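Ex. 9. Protein: Diacylglycerol kinase.
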Amino acid sequence: MLRIWKATINSRNGLAFAFRSEQAVREEIFALILSVPAAWLIAATAMRAVELVCAVAFVLTVELLNTAIEKLADRLTMDHDKQIGRVKDMGSAAVGVALLMAGAFWIFAIVERLGFV
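Predicted structure tokens for Diacylglycerol kinase:
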């Protein structure tokens, strides 16, 4: 039980640090908070609402991983390094793919709610 408690504290600390240091994380947490009531208004079913919120939470998860990669890369060197730049670009691409996926889920839910599907 102690290990679970310590892991929870570490997770909270990581999220708090990311929130303080990264604008993108703050924006995605704000989007996640907004997604809860919006999902219940838009979704045709309770399960669809959960899926919509989870899609936004997934974007936040990928953003947190991208932030961790960027912080680690910056810790290794602040000099311009082509390989590190590519790694950072791949992390950014992962966030972009997650955003596209979430957007597709939300668009489908809106279309479904409007009765086109």
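Check your answer against this statement. The longest helix spans residues 82-113.
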